[in-house]
Each structure stands twice: as structure tokens, then as C-alpha cells.
Amino acid sequence: MDPRTPIIVGVGQVTNRGKAYVEALDLMEQASVLALEDAGTKVAPFIDCVQVVNAISHTYANPPGDLADRLKLPDGIRQYTAIGGNTPQWLIGKAGDAIQSGSIKGVLIAGAEAGDSAKRARKDGVQQAGARSTTASTCEVIGDGRMGAGPAEMAAGLMGPPQLYPLLENAIAHRAGRSPEEQRHFLATFMARATQVAASHPDLAWFPQERSAAEIAEITPQNRMIGEPYPKLMNAIMSVDQGASIILTSVENAEAAGIPRSQWVFPWSSADCNDVFYPAERPDLSRSPGIAAAGKLALTAAGVGVDDIATFDFYSCFPCAVEMGAEALGISVDDPRGMTVTGGLAYFGGPGNNYVAHSIATTVDLCRETPENIGLVTGLGWYVTKHAVGLYSATPPPRGWQRPDPTKAQKEIDDTALEVDLAPSGTVEVEAMTVLHDRVAGPVAAPIIGRLKNGKRVVALTEDPSLPAQLAGTSLTGTRVSVTSAAQGGAPVYRPL
Question: What is the pTM of this model?
Fold first, then answer.
């Protein structure tokens, strides 16, 4: 075996459910201490790179530097990522390359969110002191920092995931020939299976409770509609206190640190690819060529097929991400191997950009239990936009570590981008829509994405403010509407024909 083959030697996960108020950096430290203990304390001198996944709940000047100081790690590289749920897997890919080349000895990747603590503290009138930086310097920021919504989406106020993801789900439902209600019940079936997985992690899952498909689909005051067809129980839950940490080094360094072979898990391959970056520019709102490309690259590089995979964890911020991911890899959402090893972001918990660190850590534990198995993990950033796919096994990779070049695949995807008309006038065929609900006011908006006769895309809102309530529970997708530019430069408006 190549002595520089990258391996994962330590993982740690923590969940602070309803306990003392904590900050994101506290949870990163707790998870990293567990990862160091998992690997064995002799690994610490080999960790010359600390990378921290972007945190939303708390802001720090130099989180990787602060974390390294708390853990008393050697001086070295300190990096912080841009926003994106793909970043933990993307960081694994970067780490694999750096370890293989010998440019670093080892890396600790950590991330956390303490949104629940922050929410409870505000509710209880408690002023959190705020973490003080122990380092004078700032850290390097890495990753794709572009905003996920383009001018058309932003003009329509579609910047939050609960607003945009239902549009993609509606496009999937239309292609399948299902109404919004039929789609909701279809989704509840495989989401119910995810609750069973979450319940198998009672100490880590935010909601370790099995739920039936009927319970997930039924609209109640506790399970109110958010963006059709998604009620609350189908949405990622970000107000959690969760942290995870992963330690990678090389085979030769693991041997020097005395880490037993039973602790080693090999990243076999990692691949990255984006969809057309802004949703309004994508030719097919119901599919993800980016996941398909990244999955094909990762599997082909490792010399295996999807039938060789024992476990999957598809990024699951919203059901459509799972549907698109499974379809892109050529499997069904009711595949007996399951769609998640944690329970997903709605039930295990969605700690901002760091969820995939938990799915990787859980996959590592499963690989250790069954060394011959291969696990596949997907990460996703923004609105099914940025993708990362990784393969893991406790068995050494037959082809060694692989990180294929996505340049050709990325160009092919980017070349399919559609032009968007920000000031349209004419008839539009609706390709996706949703009705967005307010907690108190009920249906408040019914955005659409559609196409003019000239092929240009349009994002529009209702002309009549009473229309969202009339459209609730229905779908305009596949019909035509009349669209005009807004009088005062806002989003275009539409009316059904």
C-alpha cells in the first residue's frame, strides 16, 4: 500500500439537546476531543491543518485558529469554508489530495451549529458572552462563495431554501403525474423510513422518534404547511446544537502514531460538480446533472458501480434533494439499502453547512463494523447547486485514492444554461410553482418558474394578492399564464389564462 494513502482515523459527534447554552465553537471542541480520543492522542502531532466548516449560528474571526489553540494542535494551515452543505465532503477530497501529495501530514475537519442554544437564550433573556478569539491572525477562507440565488430569484424574494425547494419538488411531481397532495403522501412514505433511522441514534438525533407516513403527510397545527407540498415535518431543522469532527492522516503517519488497523477507514474517491448555478437558468428543474456527473466520476474512479454500494446517505435538506440524488445514481427512493444512515436533516438534525460531517462520521462507524462494505455520501450546497460525492470503506481502495477532474463534465452542464428575462411580457408555460404559507396569514405567495415562447426563462409572482389562497392545493405547472413586467421594477407578475 502507498504509505501516503489517506485514511480517516478518528471521528466524533455531539448533540446538546436542551442542556446548557453552548456556542458553535464549544461543540466543535467537544466533537474534536472525541475524534482525537477515537484516533488516539498520539495522532495530534501529525495534525498540521485545521479546517472549519462555515457556521451560521455564531460568528468568529478565526474559528480554525481558535479550535486549534483549544486542542493544543501544532502550528500549520488554518482554513474556514464558504457557505455550502457540500463543504465537509469537498474538504475530505481536498485533504485526500494534500495527504497523498505529502503537502500536509494530517487534517482535522470540524463544524457545528448551536442554533438551539441561541434561540433558547433569546427566549430566556440570557445574554451569551460570545467566544473570544485566542488568535491575533485571521484565517484563509476557501470554497465557492457565490450566492445561490440569481437576480430573477432575488427579485421575486426567493432566497430561502423553504421557498425555492418546493418549486423543484413541484417540477418532479408534474413529471411523475402527481398532484401536490399525491406528491405529499408519496414523499411521506420514504420520509417515514428516515424517522426509523433517526430513532436508531437516540443520543445523537435531534428527533429520535419514529413517525408514520400518515403523521408526516397530515396537515395539523403542529405540522403546518410551509411551501407546498412540504409541511413542517418535511423541512430541514436547522435550530439544533450539533457538532462533528473528522481526522485524516496517511497510512505511514497512522502507523507511526500507533493507530490500530481497526480504526482505519479509507476514502476511496471524492468528486465535485455543480448544476447550472442559478435555479432559474436550469433547463430541467426536476433533475440534477451535477449529482449525476459527480456520482459517475466518483464511482468510475473507484472502479465500482452503484450496485456495489452497501449504504447511502443522500443529502436530505428537502425530499427533492433525495429524489434527485437517487435518480441521478440510478436507484429508487424505496431501495432496500435505504437513503440515509443518520435519519437526515429533518429528523437527525440539520446543523447548517455541517450535516455531511455527521453522515461521513456515521458512515465511518458502519465501515468499521463491516469492513468489506462501501458507503456512499453526497453533500449539497444551496438549491441542489453544489455537489460532492464520496466513497468510503475499511477495505483499502483497489485503485488507491482517487479524485477525478470534473472540468469536462462541468463545462457540459454550464453550457446548458438558459437565458432569463427579467422584464418579460407575453405567454409563459409554467414549469414549476408552489404556494408559500405564513404561520398566521396562510397562503401568501404563489411564485412560478416558466418559459416564454422564445425559450427564455421567467420567475414571476401573482398579480392578484388573493390568488395564492385560490391556488392552494393545486398546481399551474403545465398550463400557460400571462406575464408582464412589474410597474415599479420588482418581480414580473402573472395571471392565469
Answer: 0.96
